[in-house]
Write a structure and sequence with these properties.
This protein has helices spanning about 5-25, 30-55, 65-90, 95-100, 105-115, 120-140. By secondary structure, the protein is mostly helical. The chain folds into 2 domains: about 1-90, no CATH class; about 100-140, no CATH class. The radius of gyration is 17 Å and the shape is globular. The protein starts with a helix and ends with a helix.
Length: about 140
C-alpha cells in the first residue's frame, strides 16, 4: 500500500471506530478482560501473518535494546488501555466511551511537546482544545 502517514492515520481512525462497535458487541456476552485477551491473540496472529507474508522477521539479537524497552513499555500501556477501554465499553455506551478515549489525542500533544520536543503551534493548540471540547460535549 502506497499511503502516506495521513492515509494510514485515516485508516487507523476507521479501524478504531470499528474496534469500538465490534468491541461493544463482543463484551455484551464475554468478560471484558477475557475479551481483551482474545483480541490480543487475534492481533498477534494478524501481525505474525503480515510479517511472514512481507518477509519482515528479524533476528532478535539485532534489535535495538532501547527500541525494545520502549516497545515493551508501549505494550504495557496498550494492554492497560485496552483493559480499561473494554471495561468502559462493557458498562457504558460506545457513543460516550469512544470520545473520552479520544482525549488521548490531547494527552499525546502535551506529552509530545514536553518529552519529544515537538513544537506546539497555534493550530495544534486550538485543535487540541476543540478535541477536548468535542469529547466532553459528546460524553456528557
Amino acid at each position: 500500500m502506497n499511503l502516506d502517514w495521513k492515509g494510514f492515520a485515516a485508516l487507523s481512525a476507521l479501524f478504531a471506530a470499528l474496534t469500538a462497535i465490534f468491541g461493544k458487541l463482543g463484551v455484551a456476552d464475554i468478560n471484558s478482560n477475557l475479551a481483551t485477551f482474545l483480541r490480543t491473540l487475534v492481533i498477534l496472529a494478524v501481525s505474525a501473518l503480515l510479517l511472514s507474508v512481507r518477509g519482515e522477521w528479524e533476528n532478535p539479537a539485532r534489535l535495538s535494546a532501547r527500541g525494545c524497552l520502549f516497545l515493551v513499555l508501549s505494550g504495557v500501556a496498550t494492554g492497560l488501555s485496552w483493559l480499561c477501554y473494554y471495561r468502559a465499553l462493557q458498562i457504558g455506551p460506545a457513543s460516550r466511551v469512544a470520545p473520552i478515549d479520544k482525549l488521548s489525542v490531547v494527552i499525546v500533544v502535551a506529552l509530545a511537546v514536553l518529552f519529544l520536543g515537538e513544537r506546539l503551534t497555534w493550530k495544534v493548540g486550538v485543535g487540541a482544545i476543540l478535541v477536548s471540547a468535542g469529547a466532553i460535549l459528546v460524553a456528557l
